[in-house]
Specification:
alpha+beta; six-stranded antiparallel beta sheet; two-stranded antiparallel sheet
């Protein structure tokens, strides 16, 4: 800690991060041990966070992330979209196909940023806000592949005609970005996706991930 930082705020943020990393919540004792502070301090931190609905406590006394974080989360998409746009523009112009950034939204894949190429005679129309099940389309399947093999070398996923007849998709997952689960991809009208497209999509996903770190 430095003179310019707040120890109490730092501890409160650490509590939120610890709770976000568990599905079953944590007790006061568990938080006390992980933070290296006494239980009284933890009680005060939880009481403050609970007042702002950032945490909640179940009947067993375990603390969990509260619904108040959703209000903060609504501001995430615009920030992520802004950071991703340069890499998406470059990808769309280079490949000549519609590029997109897709994030997980519950059980769906949600397109939060889309860039169409400027020089092609025709391309697939794809709009921000479009959603589809995670197990359909390259964007969602790339995310699921990263979940199943988190330590694997980054690769790309190809699909054909799963979301739109005659359209192919290629997507690569975003890796190494805390709190963001998504993919970068392109969709094009083609029978076969050229090999260089998949490699270029992986490169673009890496660029977006770096911009978000």
């Amino acid at each position: 800690m430095t003179a310019e930082t707040s120890q109490t705020l730092d501890r409160g943020l650490r509590v939120l991060k610890l709770l976000a990393d568990t599905d079953h919540g944590l007790t006061v004792t568990e938080l006390s041990l992980r933070l290296g502070v006494n239980r009284t301090v933890v009680y005060r931190l939880l009481a403050t966070l609970e007042q702002h609905a950032l945490i909640r406590r179940d009947l067993g006394g375990r603390a969990r992330v509260g619904l108040g974080v959703l209000g903060l989360g609504r501001q995430v998409h615009p920030l992520v979209r802004e950071a991703a746009m340069p890499a998406l523009r470059s990808l769309a112009e280079d490949i000549g196909a519609t590029a997109h950034l897709t994030l997980v939204d519950g059980a769906d894949a949600l397109a939060v940023a889309v860039v169409e190429p400027t020089w092609t005679d025709y391309h697939v129309a794809y709009r921000a806000g479009f959603r589809h099940p995670l197990d359909r389309g390259a964007a969602g399947k790339a995310i699921l592949a990263a979940r199943q093999h988190p330590m694997a070398v980054p690769g790309y996923t190809l699909t054909h005609g799963e979301l739109e007849a005659g359209a192919c998709g290629a997507a690569a997952p975003l890796l190494g970005v805390t709190g963001v689960e998504g993919s970068v991809g392109v969709v094009m009208l083609a029978d076969v996706v050229p090999e260089r497209v998949g490699e270029r999509v992986v490169e673009a996903a890496r660029e977006v991930a770096e911009a978000l770190r």
